[in-house]
Amino acid sequence: MSRSRKITVNALTRVEGEGALHIRIDGNEIAEVRLCIYEPPRFFEAFLCGRSIQDVPDMTARICGICPVAYQMVSVHALEAALGIAVTPEIRQLRRLLYCGEWIESHALHIFMLNAADFFGCANGIELAKQFPERINDGLRIKKTGNSIVEILGGRAIHPVNVRVGGFHRLPSRDELTSLLQPLCGALDAAIDSAEWIAGFDFPSFEPDCEWVALHHPDEYAMNEGVIASTRFPAIDVGEYERDFAETQVAHSNALHSTRRDHPSSYLLGPLARLTLNRHRLVPDALRLANRIAPPSLMQNRFRSILARIIEVVSCLQQAILIIEEYRETKEAFMPHVAKAGFGCAATEAPRGMMYHHYEISDDGLVTKAKIVPPTSQNQRQIESDLCLYLPQLIHEPDEIIAAECEKLIRTYDPCISCSTHAVTIDRGPR
Amino acid sequence: MTNLPMKEKKRLAVFKFASCDGCQLSLLSCEDELLALADKVEIVHFLELSSHTQTGPFDLTLVEGSISTHEDEDRIREIRRQSRVLVTIGACATAGGIQSLRNWADHDEYLQRVYAHPEYIDSLATSTAISDHVTVDFELRGCPVDKVQLLEVVLAFINQRRPNIPSHSVCLDCKRRGVVCIAVTQAKPCLGPITQAGCGAICPAYHRPCYGCFGPCDQANAKAMSEHYLEVGVTPLQMIHQLRNMNSAAKLFQIESNRIESEHPTNRPAP
Lengths: 431, 271
Ligand code: SF4
Ligand code: SF4
Known about the structure:
Oligomer: heterodimer
Low-confidence stretches of chain A: 419-431
Order of helices and strands of chain B: EHHEEHEHHEHHHHHHH
Number of domains of chain A: 1
Bound molecules: iron/sulfur cluster
Shape of chain A: globular
Largest sheet of chain A: 3 strands, antiparallel
CATH class of chain A: Mainly Alpha
Low-confidence stretches of chain B: none
């Protein structure tokens, strides 16, 4: 008779938000893997309706305290698409700078406080700091420079106040930005050293094939705009996202599962996918570093996402320095506009992967419909499918080891569960 | 700082309910103080930071997030039982958070609008503050909380004193920062006069009205403020929306937005 085992992780740790994992093994078969998001629904898409478009970036920021800039960026882009607003090159660069700040601080938090501990059998970054005090201090310093960019440009690091439809409320002075240069250069050196350190970690081997999806831009490492590229299908415009991708609700989770409409398989978003699709768009020094310590042949391995993150940190720090050096003060903080009825959508790269928003607005500038598809809800099915493929090699281990190893795999995605849970509008059939 | 022996360290726990994680993250944003703090307290439960989790009792419990499910109503009572001092952090925990906008809406309709199978979802019709369910020893405001204030609160309670958190309005900080007053010079509905200080008056310094993310301050005259804005051209709907954000369920904001709604009818449903 085959023995049935149930393994439950009631509360995933070192991830943002709350989720659980349930595994059932019958004999030598993986019978079931369920990633459950029990974070309560918060109904953002419902209460955005009826609100002024000017309120949207302040409200969507509150979906996630870890990547508020991502929510602000994608929502203002979508609303500007609806209004037909094109921003000045200066505003565009400052938005990229703000996003660099968020990538730096969010990645640094994940790398040094949450993820690195897994490679040394530690329960958290503070414990790891006892073994590697300089590394963790460097990590915190890198994180702090990311936060300072967001603080200066956005007013504060979490839920910045300065982003608005059309641009910013107030542009920074040149002095405010150049004050960042020195700490940024220090952080860059620290990040390059950290990258070398991380490249030497002992990575479990796990490189299953799958579809990788990320934005792609012809001239730069895609952040705020681009086409939706994939390793399996031709690139599409962001406006075609809903034609090709869909969400379904599953009983075991408060977050919805995304798949391609015509192919019910999962796809992978985030730093590994971005590096795969956009490597040659890295800032030159970051590209050299990547080619040396993170060759493409190695970067299918989910556990190397920490290496992809630190390479993106290096690239963002260099990018931020370049943007600041080129910054000239201008008059226009934002593009003036009049409200008009319309529909607009946008996708940007949150630290954890591509995020898609669409809004319909009325002629008096109120939102009438909102759809928000965050990265974790898109990655959710991929995480489950990865677990199914990873589990067979663990099957003879005791339950606690299986649970701990699965958690490590989940953590490589840096799933941000507070965002994944908020509601995603259900599609009730073909259009 | 010297390493205190384990048994003298206070046991700190951090719990999360419906929220964005931003307030707990403020603790991790104390880049310069985090490792030193970890020497002073024993972090025994903090899912976002650590895989070591221990059960209570806890000397100091920080709670982020609002109560919005049946299960969470029970969970907060159990956490209260385990905690010597319980402090709520942020607008979600002290005032229901942005998710309390549902308190004005038809909850069933929200569920149906968002989920194909609402029956799978455990959700209450309201999102409420922690103090609506259990006794709270101290409430720290802000969406998110200010990290300097958060450190002050943690240090105060581990040293068994009251935290020194001012309760005056944003206006005073605005004056300190030398910012031109938006309420006086522009017809924009700045909530600075009725919002508690703590942020350092960020919004006016960035040329925009305060939207009340720190919730109501002491001795605020909300009616006088909103009637002034309504007279200078702000519409009732704008004024209601300004009050219905992250702190919409804080008493003062709630009463005032409801008052405007009944005394200055708008032809649109709010929120
Ligand atoms: S109060 Fe604001 S910052 Fe804090 S958890 Fe709630 S939504 Fe996030
Ligand atoms: S909304 Fe008000 S309280 Fe919040 S940061 Fe802005 S000025 Fe400060």
